[in-house]
Every structure is written in structure tokens, then in C-alpha cells.
Write a structure and sequence with these properties.
2 domains, 34% strand, three-stranded antiparallel β-sheet, four-stranded antiparallel β-sheet, Immunoglobulin-like, alpha+beta, 211 residues
Length: 211
Amino acid sequence: MGVVPLSQSVFAARRIMISADEVYPPRMTDGDKWSYLSFNRATNPNGDGGSAQDHAQIFGLSPVNIDNGASERVGFAMVAGATLSEMMDAARAAQQMWVDLGNSIFVITGIEDGLTGIPTEFSLQQNYPNPFNPTTTIRYGLREDAKVSVKIYNVLGQVVKTLVNNRQTAGFKTAVWDGTNDFGAKVSSGIYIYRIEANDFVDSKKMILLK
């Protein structure tokens, strides 16, 4: 289970704390609160690595300028999943629902989105945004170096676009599809399937292109 920001693309600050060391009195001073809400933990925003203790979570959004008498809507969502891939799919779905309800997402640049290091499993996440026009991003995780193929298919099973076809190092990766085929021509609206093959890992998901 985790928390995802809805009103901006990523948290400006995040950390998991050991409550006995960082939260319970006389700790958590006003200075601590400002620091925790403004900056990531220096070495690991996710805290002590998962020891079996009482933990607390803090998340901070970037500063927002609000005119006198005005208001600003911010949002968060609780998401859950059995794997990292499921968690990320749920997070993207929550942000998409936020947008579908007429809200906006402020895109933060220059901040890691949490997908760093080496994943513990191969994974393929739901594309974002979905439905999309004109581009969408596909994220996937490689637990080890692998020969990777990421292709787009139409509902007839025909290859429309090859996004990735090379050997890649372990880590979290992204591929962007701009709605064109392998010849550079724009494809029609509809349902498409994207499929990944990485060593013995194979997975696919559906997406919708709207025009």
C-alpha cells in the first residue's frame, strides 16, 4: 500500500521514518517537519530498508502560489498492489481518474519519480495516459540485463510499431509511442496491444488511441 499525488506528477519530498527515532516526542520539531516535507532522505527516501518496526510516512508537494482570496485543489490517493507493477498501475489509474474528473496535474521536472535502482522482478505497467492522444508512455522493469522487444499490435494481431528491439541493462525503462506505424504514418483510433518480451518474461496490455 502507498500514496500517490494527484495534483502533481511526483512528490517533491517523501520518506519512511522509524517512529521511535524520528517521530515520537521529543522528536519531530518544527524544523524536522519543514525538512521532511521539503527534502528527500539523503541516501534513501524509503527509509531504513524495511525493518520490522513502527514506521510513519511523510509526503510533501511543491510550493503552490495562491492569490489572496483564491483557493487551490490538491489531491492524494491511497493505492495498493501485490507487486510493484500492480502498485504503479494503480497509481497511474488514480491520476488518470483525477484528470477525467476535470482536475489538472502539475508536472514536476528534475525530481526522481521513485523508479530508480534495480527492480526485483520483470514488469510491464499500464501506459499513461490511457486513453491517449497524441503520445503515451510505457514503463517496464528489467531485473537483469535482457534482450528486450516492445511492440505495438492492432486487434488483428498485426505488428504496427516496434518501439524497442535491443539488449538493455537491468533497471526501470520507458518507451514512448506517438501513434505512428513503422513507416511513420499516423494510425487510426482504436484499441491497440503493447507486448514486451525480455528473456523468458512475456506480458501484454491494452491501450486506447483517441482522436
